[in-house]
Structures are given as C-alpha cells and as structure tokens.
Amino acid sequence: MRLRRALSFVAVLALASGSAPAMAADRSGLDDPVYRYAVAHPLDLAGLDRVSRQYSGAGIQVQLNGIEGPLPGPEAQRVLDERWTRRKNALGHSPADNLSVGFVWVGAVARGIWDFRDGYVGGVAPVDLSSVQLSLGCTRIKQTITRTYDYTNEQTPNAAYLYHGGLGTNAPISAVKDATSGHKMVTDHGVTDVILTKPRGCGKHSHGAQYTYEHNQGQSGFSGSAGWGFLSVSYTGGGVHFQKGTDPSWKTF
C-alpha cells in the first residue's frame, strides 16, 4: 500500500443495501474527520493511524492476509510497502502473490481493503468479488460502499456494484469489474466499507468482521454467496481464480 498512491480526494460510489429507522452506531459518516481521511487516502494506513489518534485518542489495528494477529497502522503500512518493494520487478511464483488484502475498523465502519501489485494486469471478465463478513448482534447494516482505483490512485468510475446486500447473512458482496484500460488495471486497489447503525435499545456490545477478496481471470460465469467466515464462489468455464482473506477483527461499541 504505497503512500504515493494516497494523495487524491475521491468521490463516493454508494451501493445502498437498505436501512431502517435507527441511530448512528458511531461517528461513521463524512462528518467524522477520521472517516473523511480514510475516504481521501484509501491506502495510507500510517496516516489513518495518526489521524485516529488525533481525534479519538487511539490508533487503528489492521488485519492483513498472511500475518498472525492485528498490527498497528504504521507497522501494517511497513509490511505492505515491503511486500511490493520485493515484488516490484517480477511476478510472483503464483498469481496470488500479486494481491494483498486487509481489514480495519474506522469508527463504526467495517473496511475491507484489496491491493494488487503495481503493474499487475490481470483484469478480465467476469467480475471479482469483495466481501466483508460481519457478526453484528442487534446492530444493522446501513450501507455498503465500494470504491476502486488504478495504480496511480485515480478513482475509476462505475467499476463496482452491489451483488448481495447482506440481508439475512450480514455478509454483503460487491462485484468488482476488473477490466484493463491503457495497459492499467482499473481496479488495482480499492475498499469496501460497510456502514453500521444501531436501532434504539441496541446496547454496547462486541462486533466481529473479516474480509475476503476473490479474483478470477477468464472464467465464463459465476455465482457467489457469503456468510460469517466464508465467501463461496462457483464458476463455469476455465481460467484462474484465487481468494485471499483476513482473520476476524473485533470491536466493542
């Protein structure tokens, strides 16, 4: 997750999954300066940690694929920067080596992050799938938002849509249209944010979340489902596909 790619403010592609009369679970909208920073700088985990400490008094904890236990924001940034430095000039032994995923709580927003290695061009039909799976208790999903970017951190419009809103599963799935344009993968990196609400009478309790991203190259069709702890995808036709995910992350609010 390269700091040079975390410079531009981005517009929001809102993928609504429905809502009910409720109170905000936390300062989870654009009125929250920590979330505003996360929207403007999707890959700057070190900066997000700094802003979180400034406004909330506590840093962020990031779950990364391949790493046991959560990492503070600056350490997660270092790990991901080192991954891409090592792989900068060569493809990995497996296509999956070119993808990293992470998860972080930003207030009451459950954020999944994916990031392909710069220069990796693997975007072909059909879509990839991005899913945040949640254990919520009485808390509800208000909205699912997915944003996509090319490797220069230019936001790519109309490159994602809501495949399943998570009703009955608490595991919304966004479809990511991983095409290429001008020899650039238009979904090189991105985020899926699930904004939560708490109905009146829903008290403080623990919330769990984890993140999974499924990438494919050349399959001719698919169907997908998700629930706590899994994202299941079946395909027709040949091609390459792989999946990466994080361990669960827990937060009480």
Q: Brief description of this entry?
A:
Residues 1-24 form the signal peptide. Keywords: Signal. This protein is mostly beta strands and 253 residues long.
Description:
Keywords: Signal. The structure is a single chain. This protein has helices at about 35-40, 45-55, 75-85; strands at about 15, 25, 60-65, 70, 100-105, 110-115, 130-135, 140-150, 160-165, 175, 180, 185, 190-200, 205-215, 220-225, 230-235, 240-245, 250. Helix 2 (about 45-55) packs antiparallel against helix 3. The chain is mostly beta strands and about 250 residues long. The strands form four sheets. Strands 1, 2, 3, 4, 5, 6, 8 and 13 form an eight-stranded antiparallel β-sheet that branches. Strands 7, 9, 10, 14, 17 and 18 form a six-stranded antiparallel β-sheet that branches. A two-stranded antiparallel ribbon has the order 11-12. The protein has one domain (about 5-245). The model is unreliable at about 1-25 (pLDDT under 50).
Features:
18 strands; 3 helices; 253 residues; mainly beta; disordered N terminus; single chain; signal
